[in-house]
Design goal:
Helix 7 runs parallel beside helix 10. This protein is elongated. With about 260 residues, the protein is α+β, with helices and mostly antiparallel strands. A hairpin with a 2-residue loop joins strand 1 and strand 2 (about 85-90). It contains eleven helices and six strands. The chain has helices spanning about 5-20, 25-30, 35-45, 50-60, 65-70, 100-115, 125-140, 160-170, 205-215, 220-230, 230-235, and strands at about 80-85, 85-90, 150-155, 155-160, 175-180, 185-190.
């Protein structure tokens, strides 16, 4: 069968139908004889389905193949979740965040305060720590921390418009930039000149940041870079594209920071 809609749209429909049926991603993957990561790739639009896989998906999810592939497809946005032993219905989460620049400023200052003087935390490493703070918080609480958007680049996850934001903090004498030259490489580090306003961070938000810094703050740049490249949101995103926060729900250990009681499904 020729696919007449985009893979991204097809993946979105499959993910939505799966949630409406109350299936965890791991459950549907098992019924399709696929790995969890393969189904995550399908649902994010980064992997095509064979004709047999498409038939199995439509059969399991209770929708005709023609309807699933139709350009006139109409879906129900109400999603049923079965997690932590309970069932609740809610509208789909908003995966496109709205940036809280005041909170983002304090997250940056707090991370840099905790990592002050550490030579392993350069500019790229700071971006990676920010990424894990934001994405870990979203997996735990299904709410955005800073709301910053990240793009996948060859150097790692990069917050959108981060250069402009950091330059504004430097101009306001809140950050100091240090450029260090070593043979064949230029490294950039930032030193906080003011303390973060912790009243702007909830206890749960501060706890997530503390956990990330405590676990990863002493890692070498190479270790941190290798680790982020195996995180599901990173793996399931094409280079240059925005990393979708919803992909955190397809994480597996040791990346997942939330306990899902799948035995009660």
């Amino acid at each position: 069968m020729e696919i007449t809609i985009t893979l991204q749209e097809l993946g979105r429909r499959i993910a939505e139908l799966r949630k409406n049926k109350g299936y965890l991603q791991s459950d549907l993957a098992q019924r399709l004889s696929l790995s969890r990561s393969s189904l995550a790739q399908i649902e994010s639009g980064n992997r095509n389905l064979t004709a047999l896989e498409l038939y199995k998906v439509s059969t399991i999810l209770g929708v005709r193949m023609e309807e699933l592939m139709s350009t006139d497809y109409v879906s129900d946005v109400t999603v049923e979740y079965k997690r932590a032993g309970s069932i609740r219905k809610e509208t789909s989460r908003e995966s496109l965040p709205t940036t809280d620049f005041s909170k983002f400023r304090n997250v940056i200052l707090y991370i840099l305060e905790q990592c002050a003087g550490k030579p392993n935390i350069g500019e790229k490493e700071l971006y990676t720590l920010l990424y894990f703070c934001d994405f870990n918080h979203y997996e735990l609480y299904e709410e955005h921390l800073s709301g910053i958007r990240y793009h996948k680049t060859s150097a790692g996850p990069v917050p959108l418009h981060i250069d402009v934001f950091l330059s504004s903090l430097i101009n306001e004498n809140e950050l100091y930039r240090i450029n260090n030259s070593i043979p064949g490489q230029l490294t950039t580090r930032y030193i906080p000149l003011v303390k973060p306003d912790l009243s702007q961070l909830r206890a749960s938000e501060k706890e997530v940041i503390d956990q990330v810094v405590h676990r990863m703050g002493n890692w070498s740049a190479r270790t941190l870079q290798a680790y982020v490249r195996n995180d599901m949101p990173w793996q399931a995103t094409r280079e240059g594209d925005q990393i979708n926060y919803e992909l955190v729900f397809y994480r597996e250990m040791p990346y997942s920071v939330r306990e899902y009681d799948e035995d009660k499904i």
